Each structure stands twice: as structure tokens, then as C-alpha cells.
């Protein structure tokens, strides 16, 4: 994970990461 000084970028990356993990969990379940 890349640490940035910009909190906005941090939040966007976090949300994207959450969606990515969610997709992976769904695919692994089915």
C-alpha cells in the first residue's frame, strides 16, 4: 500500500481497495 500526504487520495485508494476486496470475496465464494 502506498502512503500519500494527500488524504483525499488516501480515501479514494481505500474505497477502491474495499471494492476490489469485495469483488474478490464474491468471486471466491461462487
Give the number of DSSP strands.
Answer: 0
Query: Which consecutive residue ranges, at least 5 long each, have pLDDT under 50?
Result: none
* Biggest sheet descriptor: none
CA-to-CA gap between the ends? Answer: 27 Å
Q: Pairing-aware structural class of the strands and helices? A: mainly alpha
Percentage beta strand: under 5%
Mind telling me the C-alpha Rg? 12 Å
Mean of pLDDT: 79
Can you write the helix and strand succession as a string? H
Number of domains: 1
Tertiary shape = rod-shaped
Q: Tell me roughly what share of residues is in helical segments.
A: over 70%
Report the total helices: 1
Written account of the structure:
This protein is an all-alpha fold and 30 residues long. The chain has one domain (1-30). 77% of the residues lie in helices and 0% in strands. It contains one helix and no strands. It has one helix at 7-29. The chain is rod-shaped. The protein starts with 6 loop residues before the first helix and ends with a helix.
Question: Which features characterize this protein?
Answer:
rod-shaped, mainly alpha
Topology:
Elements: H1 7-29
Amino acid at each position: 500500500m502506498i502512503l500519500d500526504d494527500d488524504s483525499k487520495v488516501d480515501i479514494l485508494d481505500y474505497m477502491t481497495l474495499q471494492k476490489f476486496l469485495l469483488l474478490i470475496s464474491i468471486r471466491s465464494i461462487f
